[in-house]
Amino acid sequence: MAGSGEVARHWRYADLPGVDLLRARYVRKTFVRHTHENFVIAAIADGVEVFHHGGADQHAGAGALALVNPDTPHTGRAGVPEGWRYGALYPSPEVVAEIAAETTSIRGTPAFVAPVVDDPRTVALVHRVLRAADEGDALAADTLLRVAVTRLLRVNGGTLPRREVRTAGAVAAARARALLEERMAAPPTLDALARDLGTSPFALLRAFRDAYGMPPHTWLTDARVKRARRLLDGGAAPAEAATAVGFVDQPHLNRHFSRIVGVPPGAYRRERKNVQDSI
């Protein structure tokens, strides 16, 4: 991906299973509200990234890390005119849990506590992981990943609190989410969804926002992109993935995919294919 000084690569390294990798420079890029199934460990090399997280704008400058737990809504944009340059690791919850169990005293589901940590040493470690993956140095990449995650968990780690569904609104939101997941390619209107669940549209909207941090239509777009990623991982063409998840056409997938993942689906798929061809 290139244009207007922006460049990004989103890839996987076969010898780091369960971890996505990103290296990018963005200037005018805006990430819409979305979530990740994996952790986000973004190491800012220069410039400033601003991301809305936990009800407030967070600022991460050079030498800082932007940290996001799985399934946590957030956005992203430049905080200065020149944008920001960074490298990011996206380790799965299973990878982080394994590291936490071996190297920390955290018990339960591990999580990051603060969304921004100033730690130039760990920023350097993240970039060294990416460089080792680029160079095909599996031992270094794996070792440095574990050192970086351990360091972050020790200085900024905690236990993810369990969210118990108790209220009628929370139950309705969970049922709405399940229905949207099931009917992703042809979703109902908010009114029809509310009627199916025996509630009102605005009551469902409020409950869904409270439960998942975004309204149903935003959540659906995010879920469609996640499913499209899995299809692309499996070798599907972008046009096939777009139709399968309910986008009108491939340009719609391209637009939403780029605003959530950071690269177009075609570039994303090419990197996945390169990994599969090298195995």
Topology:
Layout: E1 2-3, E2 6-12, E3 19-26, E4 30-34, E5 40-53, E6 56-61, E7 64-68, E8 74-78, E9 84-91, H1 93-103, E10 110-112, E11 116-118, H2 120-135, H3 138-156, E12 157-159, H4 168-182, H5 190-197, H6 201-212, H7 216-233, H8 238-245, H9 250-261, H10 265-278
Antiparallel strand pairs: 1-2, 2-3, 3-9, 4-8, 5-6, 5-7, 5-8, 5-9, 7-11, 10-12
Task: Give a structural overview.
- With 279 residues, this protein is an alpha+beta fold.
- The protein has two domains: 2-159, Jelly Rolls (Sandwich), CATH 2.60.120.10; 168-278, Homeodomain-like (Arc Repressor Mutant, subunit A, Orthogonal Bundle).
- It has helices spanning 93-103, 120-135, 138-156, 168-182, 190-197, 201-212, 216-233, 238-245, 250-261, 265-278; strands at residues 2-3, 6-12, 19-26, 30-34, 40-53, 56-61, 64-68, 74-78, 84-91, 110-112, 116-118, 157-159.
- The mean pLDDT is 95.
- Keywords: DNA-binding, Transcription, Transcription regulation.
- InterPro entries: AraC-bd (IPR003313), AraC_XylS_family_regulators (IPR050204), Homeodomain-like_sf (IPR009057), HTH-like (IPR037923), HTH_AraC (IPR018060).
- This is AraC family transcriptional regulator.
